[in-house]
Amino acid sequence: MNTTPEPLHTALTLAAGGTPVLPLRAGKVPFGNCRICNGNACGGRPNMKTPGHCACPLPCHAWAAATTDPNVLASPAWVAAWREAAAVAYHPGGAGLTVVDLDDAAAVAWARTALPATRIVATTRGEHWIYQGTMPSSNAVRPGVDVKSLMSYARWLGPGTGTRTTLPDTVRALAVRQSSPALPATQTVVAPTPVGGGTCRHRTPAYLERGITMAEQRITGARSGVHHTVYRTFLAVLAAHGACGCLTEAHIGRLFTAAQTKGETVRHCTDAWTNARTRLGM
Are strands 119-122 and 145-148 parallel, antiparallel or unpaired? Predict the structure, then answer.
């Protein structure tokens, strides 16, 4: 009797063709890091921004877990994850590809007039336009449009139709419009400076650093209710530090990055941050 999970069959086929794959849980999110790897305390996977090499046998570290190694994919730890998996994802950048994720009909209509034809995969609400070539990933580059390539993952929804064409400059230009890979250019990320020069009332940078680190760990350690966890964590950080003038773009970028490793989009992060600021009257 064949007990191999169906997603694993798909994953092995894709991996054999050179496409790095990983399992996704319900909600299109990757499996969370194990306790040892929480907050990238292990040093991270190869090709991540953090140095070092994680030899964890579990599918940790979101997109960076993607692999073409059949021995890893079919290992006991991964088979257990495949049995729970709701879908197969792949790392476009690792396969030399860029996916323009069109989230709705309006975005699809825009692409048909603004972008060169290429391979197209239908999604639940829109389409994935797949180009040959890689670039930095960038979410919410325009309404309903995300770009997924390096350091990102996309859900496998089938081979699609049409012929892949070379990644055009028009797509590369979309990401250039963002000043930060973690935050939209229009997002104000530095908290208002209070009267008194903006000196942190906590008096020590170590307090802020510890708070940000704990916030990252709370987000990456969430096993369910990720949206709610991200919002509550943002709210807690802003309540503690938002009026001090000590939060910088780098601090907030770290929080956004932690949320993205759990499958959140920049759009979701921005909404959660804005809602938290609004609730606190900032």
Answer: unpaired
pLDDT tens for each residue of 186-207: 343 433 333 334 455 555 667 7
Which pLDDT value is given to residue 204?
64
In terms of Cβ atoms closer than 10 Å to its own Cβ (0-12, 13-18, 19+), residue 113 is exposed
Tokens of 178: 């963002």
Mean pLDDT of 71-92: 94
User: In this predicted model, which residue has the larger pLDDT, 129 or 32?
Assistant: 129
Beta-carbon contacts of residue 8 (< 8 Å; ≥ 6 apart): 73, 74, 78, 79, 82
Predicted TM-score (pTM) of this structure: 0.64
The runs of H, that is alpha helices, within the chain are 6-16, 70-73, 76-84, 105-114, 169-176, 205-220, 226-241, 249-261, 266-279
127 membership: H or E segment, kind and range: strand 127-132
Q: Are 50 and 44 in contact (CB under 8 A)?
A: yes
The H or E element containing residue 131 is strand 127-132
Q: Which residue matches tokens 């000590």?
A: 246
Average pLDDT, the chain: 81
Whether 98 and 130 have beta carbons less than 8 Å apart is answered as yes
Share of the chain above pLDDT 90, in %: 38
The CA distance from 127 to 120, in Å, is: 7
Angle between helices 226-241 and 205-220 (to 10 degrees): 170
Closest listed residue to residue 19, CA positions, set 88, 85, 83, 77: 88
**Which tokens belong to 110?**
């825009």
